[in-house]
């Protein structure tokens, strides 16, 4: 059964002010070559694609149901999502995981 409540959000061509508000250029970078990748997100991920084109098939969804995004898109992937990334153009992205772990501050 598909997790219908887990939806990928795609914001196409966010403004420069939105990107600087998120401080994207300070996020780590990640890239991958074309191919299919089975992924499970244990935390919510926000990413901004510099390059690439991806179709994401959610586990349990039909072969025709997919979310597409690419260069210039700001994407939010919900925690708990299992999916397949079908990468047609190599991806280069900035990314950030939400640390939803109980806020354990480093004061001991």
UniProtKB/TrEMBL annotation:
Coiled-coil ranges per UniProt: none
InterPro entries: RmlC-like_jellyroll, RmlC_Cupin_sf, UGlyAH_Cupin_dom
Listed Pfam families: Cupin_3 (PF05899)
Ranges for domain (S)-ureidoglycine aminohydrolase cupin: 20-95
SUPFAM superfamilies: RmlC-like cupins (SSF51182)
Superkingdom assignment: Eukaryota
PANTHER family the UniProt entry points to: OS04G0445200 PROTEIN, RMLC-LIKE CUPINS SUPERFAMILY PROTEIN
Name of this protein: (S)-ureidoglycine aminohydrolase cupin domain-containing protein
Species of origin: Acer saccharum (Sugar maple)
């Amino acid at each position: 059964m598909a997790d219908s409540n887990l939806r990928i959000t795609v914001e196409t061509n966010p403004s420069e002010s939105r990107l600087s508000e998120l401080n994207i250029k300070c996020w780590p970078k990640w890239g991958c070559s074309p191919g299919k990748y089975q992924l499970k997100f244990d935390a919510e991920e926000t990413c901004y694609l510099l390059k690439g084109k991806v179709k994401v098939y959610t586990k349990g969804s039909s072969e025709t149901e997919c979310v597409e995004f690419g260069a210039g898109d700001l994407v939010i992937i919900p925690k708990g999502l299992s999916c397949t990334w079908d990468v047609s153009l190599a991806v280069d992205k900035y990314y950030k995981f939400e640390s939803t772990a109980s806020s354990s501050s480093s004061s001991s």
